[in-house]
Amino acid sequence: xxxxxxxxxxxxxxxxxxxxxxxxxMRAVYWVYLKPKRIERILRSQGLKGNSYNFVYGDYKPMAxxxxxxxxxxxxxxxxxxxxxAVPFDHLIHKLYGKESFIWFGSNPRVNIMKPQEIRMxxxxxxxxxxPRNSPLARYLLTGLLALPDQKWAxxxxxxxxxxxxxxxxxxxxxxxxxxxxxxxxxxMMMNEKGSWKLELxxxxxxxSLSGEVISRTAFGSSFEEGxxxxxxxKEQAQLxxxxxxxxxxxxxxxxxxxxxxxxxxxLLGLLLESNNKEIKEHGNKSNMGMNTxxxxxxxxxxxxxxxETTSSLLNWTIxxxxxxxxxxxxxxxxxxxxxxxxxxxxGGLNHLKVVSMILYEVLRLYxxxxxxxxxxxxxxxxxxxxxxxxxxxxxxxxLIHEDPEMWGEDAKEFNPERFSEGISKATKGxxxxxxxxxxxxxxxIGQHYALMEAKMALSLILQNFSFExxxxxAHAPIMFLxxxxxxxxxxxxxxxx
Length: 498
Ligand code: HEM
Description:
By secondary structure, the protein is α+β, with helices and mostly antiparallel strands. The chain has helices at about 5-45, 60-70, 85, 90-95, 115-125, 135-140, 150-160, 165-195, 205-220, 225-250, 255-260, 265-285, 295-325, 325-340, 345-350, 355-365, 400, 405-410, 425, 450-465, and strands spanning about 100-105, 110, 200, 375, 380-385, 385-390, 395, 465-470, 480, 485, 490-495. Strand 1 (about 100-105) and strand 2 form a beta hairpin. The relative contact order is 0.15. Protoporphyrin IX containing FE (HEM) binds next to helix 13 and helix 20. Protoporphyrin IX containing FE binds near residues 438 and 439. Its cofactor is heme.
């Protein structure tokens, strides 16, 4: 080849390279600067308020600072106004700018939606308001139904729905009883070993493994041991991922965790996630559920997260509140004794527990295990009076909505199960979209009845066998770590009743 043609080929490749680089740079500038700035202008022109866009990082820095500050100390034991601790930055922005506000999640603006009619519009319309794409790390956790595109989601939801029909729950009740009863027996055994009627323990890890155990038994049936192993691996994986996600938010968190030996470096994290996935696949294969193995794995992952962390959160805060409000603990015990005596709780009876249901609804209002719901705006769309450009995201801040006096009255921040005495519809004055512990619309939690049934079973057995109070060692510190959890555990004192 002649020298001149080599030179001309090289210069044209160089030219193409430079043009590609310029295009990539221009696109990057558009996504991380021009687009956010354009959306900011549109939002502000409609009266929405928020911080000015900070290149690439958005509000991450003040968000990390707010979380660090809020979670550095417990709150007052009698404080059920948990938003400042559970969602510190959303709460701060809400306080500074009011309900018509937005935050910057990196370069994504997230508009706060709190009006009932706007919430209804957003959660009922999956086409215009899909779930936003998760970060690669979060995708390890949020799999299955939560992560699928519309059509695949509809297909999977249709396949999975029947497993959660109410009459099917009747069939899983014995397995729920079995797991709950084992926990009660172990507590009693610990008392017997000490020759005492009293036992102090941190109930949170117990409740957490209880709800994992219940899923293992109910989802895997005769392959219970396989299921148990899958969920154990899942838990390790979730914790690793959560730690990694946490370290993105809180500067210095990873270093601190590493010092304590809780988190390894990124490579090790990747390796562990990978090997866990492999092992889960093998066990998933063995449990032979008659579905595509990868699909089963993904749905299992989600059931683990959806089913274990949320239900144990509900049970945990119920125990805390019933310890703090012994009159409600006594009312609930009276009801359980009236309905079951010392018999094993059955399906019909659990469905008739009115006081226990009121208590659980009120706990879910003040301590929603999932404190916010997030959606994306696909293309420009109107939500009430607002015009939201494509690329905007939406936050429905469940916990702020649940404690809003404009919606729930002056006692909104107080524990008062009585408000649910005539059901959810009456308590919300017909605006059921202001009560969102299980989300709403077509993506409403598939496991809500399952979770409530499990919580009623566990609570009934606990109330039949023990009275309980908070230990002086308990520090009130709800924190958002995947779900709403007790930062320092939940130390209570159990008293055996008979
Ligand atoms: C107290 C317990 C529970 C709470 C508070 C809860 C809360 C929620 C919420 C708020 C959503 C909607 C999220 C969104 O729209 O972005 C959801 C979805 C979901 N939950 Fe639950 N959940 C609980 C228990 C369970 C259980 C026991 C299971 C399964 C065993 C489960 C499985 C799911 C699944 C699969 C989805 C995704 C549904 C879909 O996208 O179609 N959840 N949950």
